[in-house]
Amino acid sequence: MRAVVHTRYGGPEVLELTDVPKPELKDDGILVRVHHVSLNALDWHGMRGEPVIARVAMGWRRPSTLIPGVDMAGVVEAVGKDVTAFQPGDEVFANKGRACAEYVAGPARLFAPKPTNLTLEEAAAIPAAGISALQALRDKAAISSGQRVLINGGTGGVGTFSVQLACWLGAEVTVVTTGPDDGLLASLGAHRVIDRTATQVAAWGDGYDVVIDNGGTPSLRSLAARLVPGGTLILVGAAPGRWVAALTRIIAARVLSRVTGKRLLGFLAHPVQADLLVLKELAEAGHVRPIIDRRYQLEEIREAMAYLETLGARGKIVLTV
Q1: What beta strand segments (E) does 80-144 contain?
Q2: What is the pLDDT of residue 239?
Q3: Burial letters for 64-74: b for 16+ Cβ neighbours within 10 Å, e otherwise?
Q4: What angle do CA 279, 280, 286 make, to 5 degrees?
Q5: Is 0.90 surpassed by the pTM of this model?
Q6: What phi and psi values does residue 244 have, to the nearest 5 degrees?
Q7: Residue 205 burial by CB count (10 A; 0-12/13-18/19+): exposed, middle or buried?
């Protein structure tokens, strides 16, 4: 089968489209013919091996996972003998590693039926970003109806889902973005949109119950100052930096939590089928919709990754396999 492979760290030039063996189907698994893949920040961090401290998990000298991609949607081609939840022909989506390939295989518990009102392309844009936003807002921040929420970085994948899910949870949502809103964020439910290029942090307002930081800047102290006493700041986006920036920001958050009396929490999503099913139901009910910025063919993976690295995407980047 065709797959994108990288055997060394670097820029988009390290990505190669080549032939690799089809993944093996196990008794508790399903084999899926991939139709679409969406890209996430995790993909370019993995491509470059940055921040360097993350190579402890990714492979110190070279990537331990050769095929990038963690979001996909496709059609079940075969099922293992122990699988009863799916059958060939079913349309599914998943947060599944090694997704930039013609086929993926894995335990059936990792996959979920595609939302009935979405295309496979749209479904592929949901998993990682949707799960990250859902777990950050619902579980970590425990947002409730009537709270005031500030989302710093609202136009990326996690950001666009964060806006919609905060509104679904009943919050009054203010979003900070780079540049004026062209109507996208308002269409997703944002009550107020702030242009960071034209507004100082102090003018973002205060008295927020929750701040969701998808951007990694500005400083933690300035974000914490936007909170009510006892408010919560959730760090979802990684801080910029090649070496250990993300780790130092989490450590700083713990220190500031003790100093300020506010909850500053690092966050890492844990993909589970149950949350894919929640997002499926929310999509079918019209509460969330994936926003797709640009579309590429799998053969254009280098161009797609280069665009992802600009951090300018408004929504998700989707590849057709």
Answers
A1: 91-95, 103-107, 111-113
A2: 60
A3: eebbbbbbbbb
A4: 85
A5: yes
A6: -135, 25
A7: middle
Please tell me what DSSP assigns to residue 136: I
Helix, strand or coil for residue 83?
coil
What CA–CA distance (Å, rounded) separates 92 from 77? 11
At 216, list the tokens: 């990694």
Q: Please name the helix (run of DSSP H) or strand (run of DSSP E) that holds residue 309, with its range, or none.
A: helix 301-309
Q: For residue 296, which phi and psi values (nearest 5 degrees)? A: -135, 160
CB < 8 Å & 24+ apart, contacts of 302-310: 302/12, 302/13, 302/15, 303/12, 304/39, 305/12, 305/15, 305/39, 305/43, 305/44, 305/47, 306/11, 306/12, 308/39, 308/41, 308/43, 308/44, 309/12, 309/44
Pairing mode, if any, of strands 192-195 and 111-113?
Answer: unpaired
**For 68, how many CA atoms within 13 A lie in the half-sphere containing its CB?**
30
- Which of 69-83, 209-223, 251-265 is least confident? 251-265
CB-based contact 64:27 (threshold 8 Å) = no
Say if residues 95 and 131 touch (Cβ distance below 8 Å). Answer: yes
**Mean pLDDT over each residue of the chain, to the nearest integer:** 93
- CA-to-CA distance for 58 and 51, rounded, in angstroms? 10
Q: What is the rounded CA–CA span in Å between residue 271 and residue 265?
A: 19
Q: What is the rounded distance in angstroms from the CA atom of residue 83 to the CA atom of residue 240? A: 43
* Poorest-pLDDT segment among 3-12, 76-85, 263-272: 263-272
Which of 19-28, 196-205, 247-256 is least confident?
247-256
Residue with tokens 């508790």: 28
| b/e per residue 174-198 (b: at least 16 CB within 10 A) | bbbbeeebeebbeebbbbebbebee
User: What are the residue ranges of helices labelled H in 93-236?
Assistant: 120-124, 127-134, 157-168, 184-188, 220-224
